[in-house]
Design a protein that fits this description.
Elements (H helix, E strand, L loop, with lengths): L1 H50 L2 H24 L3 H30 L7 H61 L6 H18 L14 H50 L4 E5 L4 E4 L1 H7 L3 H6 L11 H14 L1 E9 L5 E13 L2 E10 L1 H60 L5 H32 L4 E5 H15 L4 E6 L4 E5 H18 L5 E11 L2 E8 L31 H11 L4 E6 L3 E7 L2
Helix pairs in contact: 1-2, 1-4, 1-6, 2-3, 3-4, 4-5, 4-6, 5-6, 10-11, 11-14, 12-13, 13-14
EC number: 2.7.13.3
Organism: Candidatus Sulfobium mesophilum
Protein name: histidine kinase
Length: 614
């Protein structure tokens, strides 16, 4: 009877201990799932921030809801007063994480990728991410506290089980000794084996097995012991894995913290944090080096004390705006410890940590920019003076060219008139050579007259006011082509003019340019029985390129750099008449429209002139 009671007591203690162990293991599992879920939520959140996809956002929300359910489940499994406080803190942190993530999502909805406030949105998102990271770090730490509490409960249950069983078995052993005269020695040995096995298991050796052969209560009890220790060993292994995962998570959080600390201190410019009282609470090495204060003096320094007295009023106003609106930027003079003033452009954003508002800011040294601005201002002043001088010189040049052209025209006109008189009055007295001389004189006078007219035109084009308007280049080119046909109707020339070509340009100047380009093409195809002249356009690097192309005489591409020089000709006068200024006029017109012009050619195969307009 005593043996039966002892066995029942052992089973009661055993089942009570197993129940406590299972409860502790379940609590540990919940704590592990809270930490694991928190880290998985960080991974999903990172994926959402990288891709911005709705799927990633929904995964974050689903994981967030699952963690909330786990926290509710934990409030049932953890009944200690300290555990209750930890769970309450986890609940608050969970709500804060949800609000911050929703704020990030809303912030991304209201700000487009090309919005002018994209930089502000990025600053807000960085601030929210910083708060999220702090909450995640707190969640992992609090979850670790729950893990530790559940592990302690598990160890306590195991020890209680071992001690209780040892105590009951010890009691049973004592009763067995009292009844040793009645009980068989074999029963005593079996109890001793159970006792020894329980002590070994209670000492933490979960690989130990109690081997009692037979088909009685002792063998059943040993089998129960073995089953219990097997379950405990599995729970311990799972617990070890969870602890290892938690350590890795803590190490990852520590690395992240170290990364942000390194980023803060090594950013190439001043970085600082100050509170609503205006005192610095954090600063990087760069800012301390700029100011020249020791760390102790920096801790006592206020923001306004670190700027020039002339800037303190506007800096105070900007700080109020940052706390009120969340962001601000200002250009100011930083005051160093030795009284030196250094120009900086500073930007700051408001952030809230544990219900306390701070401003985090960065600065950029604009000393070189100030010097550059002063240099630019000086250059602008010099340029204005140069422009006035250039305008005066242009007027003098215009007067000079007009005077020279007027002075040259009179003798040339006289020379041409006298040559005409000779032909009319003394033609019968001149021989063939004399007539040839007179023909050359007339041709030279005409060439000189055209040269003076083209020089005046080139001069006027450089100063003529641009009056832009939308013009139909196709229609203009067709009209010019028709005029060319009328000058020599017997020629067989096929014009191909692309329809719908338009440009925002000066109509008078563009007509001069097209007349020169199409006229050159007409002239240099005069040796061909059947010629082709094209006026087309195409797109290149996002710009419209116009071109006039012919299949006439062409030119040597090695001399292409001379083609736009005034009075430079690649063909002899005996082949094609001209003075070599037409393409110079065209180049001047295209440059005045903000475009560029270039040429390609091949001897005997034609030439193509390309140009663009702004």
């Amino acid at each position: 009877m005593v043996m039966v009671v002892s066995v029942i007591a052992v089973l009661v203690v055993l089942f009570a201990a197993v129940y406590r162990i299972i409860r502790a293991a379940e609590a540990t599992k919940v704590a592990d799932e809270i930490i694991t879920g928190t880290l998985e939520r960080v991974t999903l959140r990172t994926d959402y921030l990288r891709t911005g996809s709705e799927r990633a956002r929904d995964q974050v929300r689903a994981k967030h809801e699952k963690i909330g359910k786990l926290l509710k489940s934990a409030s049932v499994r953890f009944t200690g007063s300290e555990d209750k406080k930890t769970i309450e803190a986890l609940m608050k942190g969970h709500e804060s994480i949800g609000k911050n993530f929703r704020a990030i999502v809303e912030n991304r909805k209201i700000t487009g990728p090309h919005d002018r406030s994209a930089e502000l949105s990025a600053e807000i998102e960085d601030r929210l991410l910083s708060q999220l990271n702090m909450r995640v770090y707190e969640t992992v730490l609090l979850g670790g506290g729950l893990q530790k509490s559940s592990e302690e409960a598990l160890v306590s249950a195991i020890r209680l089980a071992g001690g209780g069983i040892a105590f009951v078995l010890l009691l049973a052993g004592t009763v067995s000794l009292i009844n040793s005269r009645i009980m068989d020695r074999a029963i005593t040995d079996r109890i001793q084996k159970l006792r020894d096995g329980a002590v070994v298991i209670g000492g933490g050796d979960l690989n130990h097995r109690i081997d009692l052969a037979g088909d009685d209560e002792f063998s059943d009890l040993s089998a129960t012991f073995n089953t219990m220790t097997a379950k405990l060993r599995v729970s311990y292994e799972d617990l070890g894995k969870k602890i290892e995962e938690r350590k890795r998570a803590e190490e990852a959080l520590l690395r992240e913290k170290q990364f942000f600390e390194s980023l803060f201190h090594n950013v190439p410019g001043p970085a600082y944090v100050f509170g609503e009282d205006g005192r610095f609470v954090r600063w990087n090495r760069y800012y301390q080096a700029v100011l020249g204060y020791s760390p102790e003096d920096m801790a006592k320094l206020s923001v306004l004390e670190s700027v020039a007295p002339s800037d303190r009023k506007k800096v105070a106003s900007e700080i109020e705006r940052v706390f009120r609106e969340g962001y601000g930027a200002i250009e100011l003079q930083v005051l160093t410890v030795d009284g030196k003033e250094i120009p900086f452009y500073c930007m700051g954003a408001c952030m809230v940590i544990e219900n306390t508002r701070y401003v985090i800011g960065v600065g950029i040294d604009v000393t070189e920019r100030k010097k550059a601005e002063a240099g630019i201002l000086k250059l602008n002043e010099d340029m204005a003076a140069r422009n006035i001088e250039l305008e005066f010189l242009n007027k003098e040049l215009e007067a000079f060219i007009y005077s020279i052209s007027h002075d040259l025209r009179a003798p040339i006109r006289s020379m041409a008139n006298f040559a005409k008189f000779l032909v009319e009055d003394y033609s019968d007295k001149l021989d063939k050579q004399g007539h040839d001389y007179l023909t050359r004189i007339n041709r030279g006078a005409e060439t000189m007259t055209r040269l003076i007219v083209d020089l005046l035109r080139l001069s006027k084009i450089s100063r003529q006011e641009i009056i832009p308007a939308m013009i139909d280049l196709s229609k203009m080119a067709s009209s010019i082509a028709e005029g060319l046909r009328e000058t020599n109707p017997e020629r067989n020339v096929a014009f191909s003019i692309q329809q719908g070509l338009t440009a925002d340009a000066d109509a008078r100047l563009m007509e001069i340019a097209l007349s020169n380009l199409l006229g050159n093409a007409w002239k240099f195809t005069s040796k061909k029985e059947k010629a082709h002249i094209d006026f087309i356009s195409f797109q290149q690097d996002g710009k419209t390129v116009y071109c006039v192309r012919d299949d006439g005489a062409g030119f040597d591409q090695d001399h292409v750099e001379k083609i736009f020089w005034p009075f430079q000709r690649l063909h002899a006068d005996i082949e094609f008449e001209g003075i070599g200024i037409g393409l110079s006029i065209v180049e001047r017109i295209i440059h005045r429209h903000g475009g560029r012009i270039w040429a390609e050619g091949d001897v005997g195969k034609g030439a193509t002139i390309y140009f663009t307009l702004k």
